[in-house]
UniProtKB/TrEMBL annotation:
<dbReference type="GO" id="GO:0006310">
    <property type="term" value="P:DNA recombination"/>
</dbReference>
<dbReference type="GO" id="GO:0007059">
    <property type="term" value="P:chromosome segregation"/>
</dbReference>
<protein>
    <submittedName>
        <fullName>Site-specific integrase</fullName>
    </submittedName>
</protein>
<dbReference type="InterPro" id="IPR013762">
    <property type="entry name" value="Integrase-like_cat_sf"/>
</dbReference>
<dbReference type="GO" id="GO:0015074">
    <property type="term" value="P:DNA integration"/>
</dbReference>
<keyword id="KW-0159">Chromosome partition</keyword>
<keyword id="KW-0238">DNA-binding</keyword>
<feature type="domain" description="Tyr recombinase">
    <location>
        <begin position="145"/>
        <end position="329"/>
    </location>
</feature>
<dbReference type="Pfam" id="PF00589">
    <property type="entry name" value="Phage_integrase"/>
</dbReference>
<keyword id="KW-0229">DNA integration</keyword>
<feature type="domain" description="Core-binding (CB)">
    <location>
        <begin position="10"/>
        <end position="112"/>
    </location>
</feature>
<dbReference type="InterPro" id="IPR010998">
    <property type="entry name" value="Integrase_recombinase_N"/>
</dbReference>
<dbReference type="GO" id="GO:0003677">
    <property type="term" value="F:DNA binding"/>
</dbReference>
<keyword id="KW-0233">DNA recombination</keyword>
<dbReference type="InterPro" id="IPR044068">
    <property type="entry name" value="CB"/>
</dbReference>
<dbReference type="InterPro" id="IPR011010">
    <property type="entry name" value="DNA_brk_join_enz"/>
</dbReference>
<dbReference type="InterPro" id="IPR050090">
    <property type="entry name" value="Tyrosine_recombinase_XerCD"/>
</dbReference>
Length: 348
């Protein structure tokens, strides 16, 4: 489906069409889609407030940010005209709000470049040294980074027990998502030619990745066996090459499944396992954390995850306090043990 058909109201706005098409030439399709949905939401807000988007003032954008926060999952959804309730939760997460505000800022940067206006109503405040944040930036929306939920051993087994009754497609997708740590959009965009069973390698094409960079990631023998079983099952639906994961519903049988479909599968799986916090991204966080605990270097984990900067990987690697205590205990026979003893004798 073309961008014009996906965002008809957006393409009717002056300059919005050109801006989104320009982004489409440089960014991944999922990123462009997120930008499109964000700008549609902003234009809807402007229409309710009788604001002409190209002429919006800083106070107008601040009102939009306040509106987004009133729809935040941390507060009550706003009861106002034009409010669209989320199908997955009440309101927006902090990351979603920041994405929408960033989209609006980039849109106004484009208008400045096109000489439609001279200022951006969303300006990032820069702090000088000695005046807070040491030169870092701060926008209109606070950034909250909370540790994601990861299943413990008992919860992981409960999840696998619940998944054992799933169809072969869902079982294979679950195993492949954990093994490779791919994003849900990357998983659902896989095609039949993207898997090399002889080397047990998954080939991620550049146009399907967030960074627009191709990469190869390995998967386990157990997942390879599930792949062989799924391939036989897939042939009963379609023998044509193309999208790997196909819908089996009456309405969409044979069509590629969307990442929304996969999200619903994962949500239902988590509910049956008694794990309501389980999401598709949980598998990615869990895999990268497991690799870190297994001794992989950050650069290696970053390469598998498709992160351009290894520092980004640190956001995904989570070591619990219990694990840090265990690592602390294991180092008592090392130089740290000697240093602890010298501190004890010298400082007590």
């Amino acid at each position: 489906m073309t961008l014009e058909k996906r965002f008809p109201t957006l393409f009717s706005q002056p300059h919005a069409r050109e801006w989104l098409l320009e982004k489409a030439s440089d960014l991944a399709s999922n990123t462009v889609s997120a930008y499109g949905h964000a700008l549609v939401d902003y234009f809807r807000f402007c229409a309710i407030r009788a604001i002409n988007p190209p002429d919006a003032k800083r106070t107008d954008v601040r009102a939009y940010v306040t509106d987004l926060k009133s729809r935040s999952k941390f507060g009550m959804p706003a009861r106002r005209p034009g409010y669209v309730k989320s199908t997955t939760h009440d309101g927006f997460a902090n990351a979603t709000i920041r994405l929408r505000v960033t989209t609006v800022r980039l849109y106004y940067e484009y208008l400045i470049d096109e000489e439609v206006r001279t200022t951006n109503p969303i300006k990032i405040v820069k702090y000088k040294r000695g005046r807070g944040f040491n030169g870092n930036s701060r926008g209109m929306v606070e950034r909250y980074e909370k540790d994601p939920w990861l299943p413990n051993e008992t919860q992981w087994q409960a999840l696998l027990n619940a998944a054992s009754s799933e169809c072969i497609r869902n079982r294979f997708m679950l195993a492949l998502a954990y093994d490779t740590g791919v994003r849900r959009a990357e998983l659902c965009a896989l095609e039949t030619g993207d898997i090399d069973p002889s080397q047990r390698l998954l080939h991620l094409r550049a146009k399907t990745t967030k960074s627009q960079r191709a990469r190869q990631v390995p998967y386990s023998q157990a997942t390879g066996e599930l792949y062989a079983a799924y391939l036989q099952h897939r042939r009963r639906i379609s023998r044509a090459p193309g999208p790997l994961f196909l819908s089996e519903s009456r309405r969409n049988k044979g069509l590629p499944i969307s990442f929304w479909t996969w999200s619903k599968v994962v949500k239902a799986l988590g509910e049956r396992a008694g794990l309501p916090l389980f999401t598709p991204h949980t598998l990615r966080h869990l895999r990268l954390t497991d690799l870190a605990q297994a001794g992989w270097k950050m650069a290696e984990i970053a390469a598998l995850a498709g992160h351009v900067h290894p520092a980004t990987t640190m956001i995904y690697v989570h070591i619990s306090g219990r694990e840090l205590s265990e690592r602390f205990r294991q180092t008592l026979d090392s130089t740290l043990d000697w240093r602890q003893e010298t501190m004890q004798t010298s400082l007590q």
